[in-house]
Predict the 3D structure of the following.
Amino acid sequence: MNVLKGKHIVLGICGGIAAYKSVSLLRLFIKAGAEVQVVITPSGKEFITPVTLSALSQKPVVSEFFTANTGEWHSHVDLGLWADCMVIAPATASTLGKMAHGIADNMLVTTYLSAKSPVFIAPAMDLDMMRHPSTQANLKLLSSYGNHIIEPACGFLASGLEGKGRMEEPENIVKYLENYFSRKCDMNGKTVLVTAGPTYEKIDPVRFIGNYSSGKMGYAIAEECASRGAEVILVSGPVSITAKHPGIRTLHVESAREMLAECEKAFPICDVVVMCAAVADYAPANPVDRKIKREHQDVPVITLVKNPDIAATLGGMKRESQMLVGFALETDNESHNAHEKLAKKNLDMIVLNSMRDAGAGFGVNTNKVSIYHRNGCEIDVPLKSKADVAIDIVDEIVKNI
């Protein structure tokens, strides 16, 4: 099955010598059955003419906000809603900087800012520009937003130098998109339970015991599962983010015991459970219903009790047909502790975070993990956006369901 057939693709073309490759890319998209709307920057027209692009796409090429002769307005919002994906190839250093920082001074960038669909970016520039710290920082920022970076290849460049900066070949960009969209139906018919965020264990009406979890990793996994066709039940602790996919049903809880109760209700109908929440291990034994006032008493002593172990509880309930995935956030003896949890809690897979890895863990948009399977298979995922890490995690889940 040709997964690109019928897809709406916005092809963004920037002003670089690699724009000539965009003609081949456009032809390949059309040949695959996609409907393509070209959006080109003003400088891009210096390298490839709109006439050529329009002839191949059978659509007028969009470059300006309105047509000078007729005043016809080109709606970047409509384009963003129409697209199943946006591909920017080539993406120049200038456009990368504008996209990263929201500088909406041309039709391509405004369309990008309006896009609700996945965005694929294929940079192309000279090797010195490519490795400049500003370019690398912009690429990292764009990746953290959930964009997919199609890394440039190494080879001879327009400057006569040789190095990394060549736009990836059109055939490989098409394969990248085909691989992406082919994953989008591999969880059809599955019900997935995901836990995310922290839990808050009440001390009094204004204070609690909690942790720094933002919920971003769990929400990214929920979004990825839903985008692949799964029905997702997301049990979320207190976070400041919201799920976007209509296939996600979010249940908001506060404490570990509330989270356990919702998980126990949903667990029997689930095919896969991903325990990504950072559940507090302990809770105050005797929370009070009035604010503890410092002026009228000595420093209070808070007695703690153990919270229920949600992963272990579900592990004890797990049927052979179900898959249970846990998370481990460790600061020392990371691999040993993760393997111990894998066995002790009857998990099928565990994802290890180390707090010692820069850019991983709580509150950031990136992550770096190791994935351990019950069968002994191990995968190391390098530092990348949490959205991309979610893809890798769900890929491993799909292999085992």
